[in-house]
């Protein structure tokens, strides 16, 4: 007799807390994909069911709830985590119990776990391209601002390396704010930026602080046409919160923007809107959460099991036509082939893609190829686009 029991998967994204706005989009992207999998017959007729807990953006809570998913709920696959601190909190759990974490967020690189699939951009899939674009169009004098946790420190170190190896490359300042920073914290930083006049500001501020940074910039009367904020972490979720007037003219590097004009993306966004309306804005982390579910579902159908030893051979090396393009999981490093893009916010709050790679770029999480020219040699063509 065929097994008709549901296939249960863990989901750890927050509805409350500092980064809940972006995590809600990841949660709903996950739910959208699960709904689509079940509408298409599930996993060989078995329903795919999410066991979701809200960690409220607290790393120790992620770890505790990951243990609960493994020990009490008996799940073998977990989708979750936004901040690197939360991924690192869950990593020992999945490694100890031989479970699998699907991580759908850009991150700082320099990591490998046999129990994690990395669906977001590594530095050679966003930082390298952003450094190339910004120095070409604005200059190589940078001021770095980030939130006070793992990802911003490492990303600023990497961006500094990219900038300083360019002619005239100079780091004029590097400041960090706590995750619950207030308006006064950002006002002080913007005053320093106004005094030092960099060519651009590199932001790895996350969560609610993003709006405060961009608002302080606007209040100071700074001009994004001359000195924009360039970010890896500011996406549609944050722009919708701050409003287009504040975000207009600023730049983000990401493999996915909601404005990508393809039938796959338009149809996916339409299905999401039909289910969730304006509850969350599709963005790069939403898209990775979405396609990772489909890739796992395809592997589950082939493996006939969610045990990691049987699932991984079918997941590693697999491909999927995601909204950004055809992605692939590298069987050697567990990272995903993605499509680097540069977007600039227009007056309507939409990211206009001003430069993009014509081909997918494999992750190089340890930045083995670090020279600036290597990125073009690997197929990245940012184009000669006026910023």
What would you say this structure looks like, in words?
This protein is of the alpha/beta class and 387 residues long. It has 2 domains: 192 residues, Response regulator (Rossmann fold, 3-Layer(aba) Sandwich); 174 residues, Rossmann fold (3-Layer(aba) Sandwich), CATH 3.40.50.2300. Helices cover 40% and strands 19% of the residues. Strands 7-6-8-9-10-14-15 form a 7-stranded mixed beta sheet, with helices on both faces. The relative contact order is 0.14. The C terminus is likely disordered.
Summarize the structure.
The chain has 13 helices and 15 strands. It is of the alpha/beta class and 387 residues long. The chain has 2 domains: 192 residues, Rossmann fold (3-Layer(aba) Sandwich); 174 residues, Response regulator (Rossmann fold), CATH 3.40.50.2300.
């Amino acid at each position: 007799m065929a097994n008709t029991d549901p296939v249960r998967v863990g989901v750890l994204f927050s509805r409350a807390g500092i980064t809940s706005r972006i995590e809600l989009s990841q949660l709903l992207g996950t739910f959208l994909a699960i709904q689509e999998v079940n509408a298409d017959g599930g996993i060989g007729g078995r329903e795919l069911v999410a066991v979701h807990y809200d960690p409220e953006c607290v790393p120790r809570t992620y770890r505790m709830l990951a243990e609960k998913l493994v020990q009490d709920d008996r799940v073998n696959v977990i989708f979750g985590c936004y901040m690197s601190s939360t991924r690192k909190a869950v990593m020992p759990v999945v490694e100890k119990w031989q479970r699998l974490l699907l991580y759908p967020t850009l991150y700082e690189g320099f990591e490998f776990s046999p129990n994690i699939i990395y669906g977001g951009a590594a530095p050679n899939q966003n930082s390298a391209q952003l450094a190339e674009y910004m120095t070409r169009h604005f200059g190589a004098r940078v001021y770095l601002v980030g939130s006070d946790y793992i990802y911003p420190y490492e990303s600023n170190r990497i961006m500094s390396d990219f900038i300083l190896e360019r002619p005239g490359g100079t780091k004029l300042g590097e400041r960090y704010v706590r995750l619950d920073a207030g308006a006064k914290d950002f006002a002080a930083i913007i005053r320093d930026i106004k005094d030092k006049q960099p060519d651009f500001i590199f932001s790895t501020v996350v969560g609610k602080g993003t709006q405060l940074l961009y608002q302080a910039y606007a209040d100071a009367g700074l001009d994004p046409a001359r000195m924009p904020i360039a970010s890896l972490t500011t996406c549609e979720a944050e722009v919708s919160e701050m409003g287009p007037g504040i975000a207009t003219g600023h730049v983000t590097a990401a493999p996915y923007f909601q404005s990508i004009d393809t039938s796959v993306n338009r149809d996916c966004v339409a299905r999401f809107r039909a289910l969730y309306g304006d509850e969350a804005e599709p963005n790069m982390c939403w898209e990775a959460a979405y396609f990772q579910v489909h890739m796992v579902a395809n592997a589950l159908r082939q493996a006939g099991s969610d045990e990691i030893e049987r699932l991984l051979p079918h997941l590693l090396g697999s491909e999927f036509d995601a909204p950004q393009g055809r992605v692939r999981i590298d069987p050697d490093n567990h990272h995903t082939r993605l499509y680097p893009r540069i977007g600039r916010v227009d007056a309507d709050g939409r990211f206009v893609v001003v430069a993009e790679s014509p081909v997918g770029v494999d992750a190089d999480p340890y930045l083995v190829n670090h020279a600036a020219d290597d990125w073009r040699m690997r197929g990245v063509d940012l184009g000669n686009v006026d910023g």
